[in-house]
Design goal:
Rossmann fold, 11 strands, Sec-Metab_Biosynth_Hydrolase, 258 residues, 36% helix, 3-stranded antiparallel sheet
Length: 258
Amino acid sequence: MKKLIAGGLLLAASALPLAAQAQAAKPTIVLVHGAFADSSSWNGVIPILQRDGYTVIAAPNALRSVRTDADEVRDLVKSIDGPVVLVGHSYGGSVISEAGEGAPNVKALVYVSAFAPEEGETALGLTGKFPGSTLAPALAPPVKLAGGGNDLYILQARFHDQFAADVPVAEARLMAAGQRPIADAALGEATTAPAWKHVPSWFIYGDKDKNIPPVAMQFMAGRANSRGTVVVKGASHVVMVSHAPAVASLIEKAATAQ
């Protein structure tokens, strides 16, 4: 075996690439935002993951249809060499549940204040199955779409209290102005084949979530046999904004799990 002298020490040349190989073996983290948000909602989480050596992609999510949104994420996953951890917030949980199905390089799913529907279930149905959501009265009058259906927004005056109560008011105002609408049809579209049935999953959510009832997320985590469930005391629906280190920590646990 060829050896190199470095600082007076003998090093095996074949050992030098191992660190690079270990780095390359780290999963790519794909983050999928939910309704009434955009990719900037992950801005607190991304630097932590990058600092710890992970490649991170905040995937686009059109918020039009579970199937078409999942197809876009699935195409992205297919383009990535090596293992992937899919992370979804809110409606993004429905998207990663669908996108992870049939994607052999997806090694884990992380649900961040998110839906994890069973086959045939919808986001609306799961929200209404349990008490606690106050989203409906916080919605603005729907924007009618030329092709049919409606776009839904949260009233900006209600956004802080409803969506991001544990985020500073000034930051919540920015989030409210930049929120991405979701097509009402997407919230009523049923999941077909959820990946959480055979892909390991992790869950994190706040106990003060006003969009998805915490009891609903507790139910979904239990049903999915969650490998780890973190309930953040006092956290709102945007736990990845208000408690980014906790969310990043759980993502890394999923990424390193065997």
